[in-house]
Write a structure and sequence with these properties.
- The protein has about 130 residues and is an alpha+beta fold.
- It has a domain of about 90 residues: Double Stranded RNA Binding Domain.
- The chain has 5 helices and 3 strands; from the N terminus they run αβαβαβαα.
- The radius of gyration is 30 Å and the shape is elongated.
- The relative contact order is 0.14.
- Keywords: Hydrolase.
- InterPro entries: Pep_chain_release_fac_I, Pep_chain_release_fac_I_sf.
- It is an enzyme of class 3 (hydrolase).
Length: about 130
């Protein structure tokens, strides 16, 4: 993943934000929508594109467009910075490969404890029987 190349491929759109803010909401377009074309990206390898396609399939359109909106702040610039930060966090998390699980060996003490418990229960049941004379 090449961040510099990806930054050039990102496009932004400013929209009027909803929610609190008074007259400022009605006048100024502070909400920022970040769009990124995953399939046409030169900053990602083919393996990374397929991995993103599987991990982010609910957030990507059929055309391969990833959209992320940010309207937390009343400033368009801050919302733009927040959107970029979140975008790279999402990419980083999606491209992270999970660790393979190593099968652990059952300790000898645990096996012995289980076998002794079985023997004790067996002896208890044997003692319940009538003596065979």
């Amino acid at each position: 993943m090449n961040k510099e190349v990806i930054l050039t491929e990102i496009s932004f759109k400013a929209v009027r934000s909803s929610g609190a803010g008074g007259q400022n909401v009605n006048k100024v377009a502070t909400k920022v929508i970040l769009t990124f074309l995953i399939f046409k990206s030169k900053g990602l390898t083919e393996d990374e594109i397929t991995l993103l396609q599987t991990k982010l399939q609910t957030k990507i359109s059929q055309e391969g467009v990833f959209q992320l909106a940010c309207d937390e702040d009343r400033s368009q610039l801050k919302n733009k910075e927040l959107a970029i930060k979140r975008f790279f966090d999402v990419l980083k998390k999606a491209l992270q490969k999970p660790k393979e699980r190593k099968a652990t060996k059952i300790p000898r003490a645990v096996k012995e404890k289980r076998l002794t418990a079985k023997k004790e229960i067996s002896a208890l049941k044997q003692n319940r029987k009538k003596p065979n004379i």
